[in-house]
Structures are given as C-alpha cells and as structure tokens.
Amino acid sequence: MKKLVERLTPSTAATVSIRYCTVRRQGTKGADGLEQQVITYPSVYIRLLPILSRAYVFIQLGRTLVTSFNTMSTRLASGDTSLLAELHATTSGLKVLASGLSVNDLEVARRAMGGHGYSAFAGLGRIYADYLPSVTFEGDNFVLDQQVVRAALKAHNALMSSSNPMTHSESLSPSSSYLCLLVLPNQGPPTPSATLWLDPKTSIALLEWRAALLVRDHARIIATSQLDAAVYQRIAKAVTEAFVAVQVGKMVDDLGSVGKVTGESAAVVRGVYTLYLLTVVESALVDLLSFGLLNATPLNDNGSTDPTRSLRLAIDTLCRTLLPNAIGLTDAFGLTDWELD
Fold first, then answer.
1. What's the alpha-carbon Rg for the chain, to the nearest Å?
2. Half-sphere exposure of residue 251, counting CA atoms within 13 Å on the CB side?
3. Does the chain have fewer CB atoms within 10 Å around its N or its C terminus?
4. Which DSSP letter does residue 137 get?
5. Which of 138, 170, 208, 241 is catalytic?
6. Distance CA 50, CA 213 (A)
7. CB neighbours of residue 62 within 10 Å
8. CB 45 within 8 Å of CB 315
9. Nearest Cα to 306, choosing from 296, 316, 315, 314?
10. Band of the pLDDT at 267, cuts 50, 70, 90?
11. What's the first-to-final CA gap in the chain, in angstroms?
12. Nearest-CA neighbor of 18 among 126, 103, 117, 100?
C-alpha cells in the first residue's frame, strides 16, 4: 500500500524526469568534450526540483494524516467526535491541493523530458491518465474549496466575537492557528531579504499572514459586497498552504530528532523543504502584493525595484545547491524499476 500511494504522488514524476534529464546531454560542450546535461539548464531544473520538493512534503503529510486518522478513530470508538470537524476541514483542503498539484506536476515533468516524454517508454503518460480523475472523485475540488472556506470563516467569526480574543486564540485548531496573527499585539509580517528567504520561518510567516488577511477580508465583505467568482479557490488555497507551511516547519525542526537524518543529509533535506516553501510563496505573489505583505524596494545595484527579485534569486540559488543531490534524493523514494515502468 505504501508503494502504491507513493507511486501516485509527484515522486514518480520527479524520479523518471530527473533521471532522464541527468543522463540526457544536449547543447554546449564542456572541457571534457561532452554536451551539457539537460538537468543543468535553468529552464529544466526550475521545473523539476520544485516537483521533487513537493513529493517529499506530500509523502510526509500523508504519514502525518495516517496518524491523525488513527487518533480520531480511537476517539470515535469511545464516542468522542471532537476531532471530526477539524480533520474534515484539513483533509478537504489537502485533497484539493495535493491532487491539483500532482496532476500538474506529472504533466510538467513529462514535458521537461522533451520528445521522450511523449513516448510510452517514459511511463508518465499512463500515470497521468490514471491520476487525472483524482481532482473529481472523492469530492470535486471546486466543491471542497467551499467547505474549507466555510470552516475558516466559522473559526474567524468565533475568534472575533469572543469576549477575549487573545485567550480564544490560544485554543485555535491547527488548521486555523494562523488567525491568531489578527489579535496578537506587536505582530507584523517579516521584511524578507536575500538571507531571510533561506530561513523557513520567513515563508511560513508570510503564508500565514496571507491566509489571515484573506479570511478577514472575506468576512468583512461577504454580507455587503458582490464576491468575485474565484474567491473560494483563492481563500481555500491560502488557508491550506498556510497549514501545510506550518507542518513543513515542524518537519524541518524534526530533522534533528533521534533516529532522523543528520549531518549533510539533514542539510540537503532541509533545503528540499525550504525550496517547497519558497515556491509556494512565489505562487502566492498576487495575494502577497495585493495585501502589501511585500513592498517595492529601493533601487539596488542591479537597477531593480522589484520586491520579488530576491525571492526568485533565492529559489535559483537553492535549486543549484540541491542539483548535485537530485539523483540521490530520487533514490531515497525507494521506487523499483518495475514500479517506474
């Protein structure tokens, strides 16, 4: 079962495409007379390494969910339903996020292999066809988004109508803990720099602020204004990505635990998790800029005032750092040749 689940995640797409693009050479010849490995082209690794990072995060999230389900089942057996609503909201959001991204990642990985990606020998076309219905079965993603937003709005209204919001914020569930930012004193979003981007806490804080401000804005206008057509998708995505970001932060902290990866391996896995967070922030730039969480910067040495430039440079730097370990990171999935075929 474990292998079946992991085969239906971006791990297969990352493994097949990264291995192929590492072996495949094309273009400029180096001092050794060999053409450049395809994986070393920026337009290739910027597509494949984020898929690798999502594979690591989603597999770990799956294991965390199994633990959560087991805990809830034990409580349900004794008549305790306290975890039911929280787990429903969490899994609804994660189903939308994981299935949507995985379908997209399979296609991106296939296209990154060029003509080989169209071949049946690559194997990704068949896996894509098998996995594509996941955005519809077990709850259509556009319908599930509304359930995520309903839960977020309920948590927000309960917090804001509480006689003591500060005290109430201490009892927020994991899926709504980001809302505490709206009531905690002296709290403000971080001001990222080239160095701070590599600290996972920077991305986590920005993604939590994005979710909190989107939900608050929605609560203010829902009864008085016309809602835009994509509001449920934007809020559900922000809320779920904030929750996942916090979980990724825990994964990073857990790397030093007894029995976990250590030393150089821990640094590499930390880089994988950080890359996941940075690419999520990049995908959220519309919201971050809309709410003023990122502001224009003074003219720098490169003549740019783009507040997102340091983020994109950090992503590129991290990708180039991870590149030498890309094959080893795919080997760690433990997928056999039979499973990849």
1. 21
2. 27
3. N
4. T
5. 138
6. 26
7. 15
8. no
9. 296
10. very high
11. 17
12. 117
> Which two structure tokens, joined as six digits, stand for 168?
């109430």
Report the alpha-carbon distance of residue 25 to residue 16 in Å, rounded: 16
Q: Is the pLDDT of residue 203 over 50?
A: yes
Tell me which residue has tokens 């509304």.
146
Residue 16, token pair as written in the block: 């097949």
Annotated catalytic, 138?
yes
In 3D space, the residue among 104, 75, 18, 98 whose CA is nearest the CA of residue 323 turns out to be: 18
Residue among 190, 178, 203 nearest 274 (CA): 203
Residue pair 120/126 in contact by the 8 Å Cβ criterion: yes
Measured CA distances, 259 to 66, 262, 266, 267 (Å): 20, 9, 12, 15
192: number of Cβ within 10 Å? 24
Highest mean pLDDT among 162-176, 209-223, 326-340: 209-223
Do you know the residue count of the chain?
341
What is the distance between the alpha carbons of residues 310 and 213, in angstroms, rounded to a whole number?
23
Q: pTM higher than 0.70, yes or no? A: yes
Give the CA distances from residue 145 to residues 23, 168, 186, 253, 260, in Å, rounded to whole numbers and listed in that order. 41, 26, 32, 30, 35
Closest CA to 155 of 208, 85, 94, 97: 85
4 pLDDT tier (thresholds 50, 70, 90): very low
DSSP track, 14-45: HHHHHHHHHH-EEEEE-TTSPEEEGGGSHHHH
- As a dihedral over the C-alpha atoms of residue 110, residue 112, residue 117, residue 122, rounded to 10 degrees, the angle is -70
E strand intervals along the chain: 25-29, 35-37
